[in-house]
Protein: Recombinase domain-containing protein
Amino acid sequence: MRKMPFSRNGFVNIDNPKWSSTTILRILKDEIYTGTLVQGKVTNINYKLKVPIKHADEDVSRVAHSHDSIISKNDFDLVQRVLKVRTKSSQSNKVPHLLSGLVVCDSCGKNMMIKTVKHKCGNYRYYYCPTGKKNGCISPSMLRVEKLEQEVFRQIREYINEIKNIVISLKLCH
Structure:
């Protein structure tokens, strides 16, 4: 049996919680609690390579009533419908960002990702280092998407103007 992280006074340690939203979501989506044995969702190429391969739902083997259920199949199906309705689809993922794959962290060199931060006066998008301080990035940076794009456009316009000037000076020389 797994030990719970208790503090000296006997209460559960909230600094190291075992129940996260991800854990609860995984439990809500797991069909095994309905008494159905599910096998073959994921396999590995071979035992040396730890690369999981997900299989299509129709290729997964299911055995109904293989053990006592904790939740009825009807309740489980209802929860799945509610989760499907409540799942938010990020609009930002549907359109690729202008500089996707081109912006890297100065400190660690990893590709930066975009996150949207909600403020009173509107939403702001930032490029941020996914590595972060916890995972070894010395000074992870955050850049406003709009400001970075404006700077890139400014430099492109500057570069185009330089090329125009070179073309004009070449025409004058010949």
Summary: DSSP finds three helices and seven strands in the chain. The radius of gyration is 26 Å. Residues 33 and 70 are 5 Å apart (CA to CA).
